[in-house]
Amino acid sequence: MRISHQLLIAAALTLMLCAGSARATFVAEYFNNYGTVAIDRLNGLNGGVGWGGAWVDSTGGNVGVSGNPGYEPNLQTSFTNANYSTDGNESDTNDGRALIASTDSSASIIRRSFLTPLTGTIWMSALVRHASNVGGDVILWFETQGSGSQANTFVALRTGDVPTMRYMGTNTTSADLNSSGTNLLFLAKIELDYSGSFDRISFWVKNEAANLSSEAALGSPLLTNSGIDVLGNTLTYIGLSGGGAIGNVDSLRYADGPDALALVLRGANAVPAPLALPAGAMLLGTLVLRRRTRSRS
Asked: What is the pTM of this model?
C-alpha cells in the first residue's frame, strides 16, 4: 500500500506543530546591554527576550515619575546553586542589574508587557539582593491596576525583611528571613483558573544552599493564597518597584507550559528541542530530496 506524498507531508508538519505547541513560552530580562552609565529609571529600556515593548511607567493610580527602579551598570547579582544557571545574564561592562534606591517609592511602579500573554501554570524567578533587614521594599507585581479584591497583586520582601504576598486586597507575611546582604532567589508559581475561575499563587524565597532539583524539593511555599479570579485567564504584564533601602533585582524570568520551572531556574537553554521537531524536519527533508531525485530520473 503506497502512502501519498501529501499524507507524509501532513504527518511531518503535524510533528513539527505538535513540538512547537509543547514548548513553554519564555520571557527574560537580564538588564544586559544598557550601557556603562547608571540610569535613574528603567522607563524606555527594551532589552531581554519575549517582551512586547519597553519598560514603561505604570498608570492608573501608581504613576512613576522619578521614583522608579533604575539601572546599575557592570554589576550582576550572583547565585551559586547546582540547579540554577545564570545562562543569559552577561557580565560585560555594559551589562548590569536593576537598582532600587533608598529614595525610591514602592508606589512608583515600572511595568512591562509580554509579547505573548502567559496562561495556565506560570513560574517566575528573580534574583534579589536586600541590603538591609530593617527597612526597604523589593516588590514584583502581577497586577497593578485592579480594584477591590483584584487590586495590587504582588510578592515581595518588605520592611523588616519579611516575605509578603498581596492577594485579594490583603497582605500575608511569613517569618523574618534575616537575609541582610545576601543574594536570594524569588520563586513564584501562578496557577490561573486552577479550579474553575479561581487563581492560586505560591511564593518561595531561597538561598544558595537550597535544594532546587524539583518542585517537590522546594518544600512548602513560604506563602500561598487562592480564591477568586484575581488575574483573569492570562498574565499580560508584570511590574517592579521598591524603596526605603538599597536593593537589587536581576535575572527576571517568566515561563508557562510543561517546562516552565526548568526554564526559570536554568534559562532558555535548559530544555532541549522536542524530538518531534527534528523528526518532522527530517521527514520533510527526505520527501523533498526524494521528489527532486524522481524529477531528475
From this structure: 0.82
